[in-house]
Amino acid sequence: MALISITEIIYIIVLTLAIGYIFSGYIKLRRPLTGLDIKPSFKEIKLAIIIAAPGIILHELAHKFTALAFGIGAKFFIWIPGIILGLVLRIFNSPFLILAPGYVSISGGTDLQLAITSFAGPFINLLLFVIAHLLLKKRNIKKRYLFTLYITKMINLWLFIFNMLPVPPLDGYQVFSHLINILKT
Questions:
Q1: How confident is the model at residue 36 (pLDDT cuts 50, 70, 90)?
Q2: Residue 1 lies in a domain
């Protein structure tokens, strides 16, 4: 059995393109906004993919591969309503972004395995935040990379914080509920 299916690869490609378009409304190159700004440049989409997609895609893949490492079944899916919500907010230049573009369906596992698997995604965001933070502290960073690193740092900080909220169905709820189940036994 393959670690990742052709369907999951297609989902990752679709999700990456959607993230690029959605975040191009929030990660702007220097150009004035005009009305409904629904046609970003290729450069803006590419920049948004480079900055935002790794935090979201790697987050979900961390769940999948952690579960697989425990011998638990796991499959990545895109969530069309979550992508549509992000696209609508992008099209209308919403000042805020709500995005739930994908998830990993997990079958089986102990509470400890599920708590670790649930934390794996936010951990990746925390790791990307720390790496970007440390790179920004270096004195010899080229100016053209400063913006990318700063936005990468902030997106991953917010992804970590948001996902660790103990509210269903977020990862934080899953982590804490499985840890509580362990303490009850």
A1: low
A2: no
